[in-house]
Amino acid sequence: MGIKENLSNLMNKGKGKAQESAGKATGDRDQEAQGRATQTEAGVKQAGENLKDGDIKGAANEAKDAFDN
Question: Region Disordered: what ranges (predicted)?
Answer without folding.
Answer: 1-69
